[in-house]
Amino acid sequence: MSDTGEEWQVARRRKGAARKSNLLQVSVASTCCQEQLDIGKTVKRIRDTVSELRCEDFWQEWKEQLLVAGPASLSKHPENEDPADQLEKGREGRLCPHLECVCYGLGSFSSCASARYQLAMLLLVLDAGQIPLKDCSVYDPAFSTGERDALRELGLTVLTENEEGKRLATKPTLFYMMHCGKALYNNLLWKNWSTRCLPLMIIVGNSFNGMRDRTIEREFKRDYSYISQAVDVCAERQLPCPSRVIDVFSDTAVITFPTSNLNRLPQSTWAEPPEPQYQHCPDLEIIQRKTQS
């Protein structure tokens, strides 16, 4: 493995300590050098990191878990058969290329090694799922102009609007959300809070069970009600994380929403879900959209 002195460092956290969102990890040094980013060098470094991860045993385990999660969760659509036709298991056990991808919260990958490895893993996930690069939309308010150019050079689609995670899944969609704040997940669930939309989603991100374990129960139910309800009906497959990459990929799971589980909830669960407001959350862990006065 290359660059071992810089890259694979075990990060120790106090038990129960909250993880900072990648959205908040923009250093002063990275801000100063963003505009002088060497696009070619940055892209090469990312591709080298992809090659490095591809040889890792834990990536092979990730790929197996992802390939199992995709067809199982999306092979049947609850109300409309068309999306089911869009996602079938390929001849080699891969997902067909009709799955779209949305990535939130990578952070400043040109200066942060963890963010770069998470981006490299995203590229491997896209390859494994046969998702065209152009069908993957990425957004983080921390991206510099140079980083956005580097992402476009890689072939990804860069979003220009801060959606705050409020994106409706109208077709099978993989959401890649590594170490994002709970509000981002909660917003995504709210926007898709129906028995039609939730089964269209695969989330690769932080374990909902882990979020519940690290949050005071009363606050969890009050402030993140959609995660609180989803945690008991979603299906989580924990992804392996060697100790040397614990700060990069710890507590990561593949999360899906089987229709059979959702149908266990009372119909009142889905009636006019209120938009989250977060009045009681001073440390929201996401950068919110600027409102026009």
From TrEMBL:
Query: Where do the SRR1-like domain residues begin and end?
Result: 99-255
- Which GO terms of the cellular component aspect does the record hold? cytoplasm; nucleus
Q: Which domain of life is it from?
A: Eukaryota
What family does this belong to? Belongs to the SRR1 family.
The name this protein goes by in its record: SRR1 domain containing
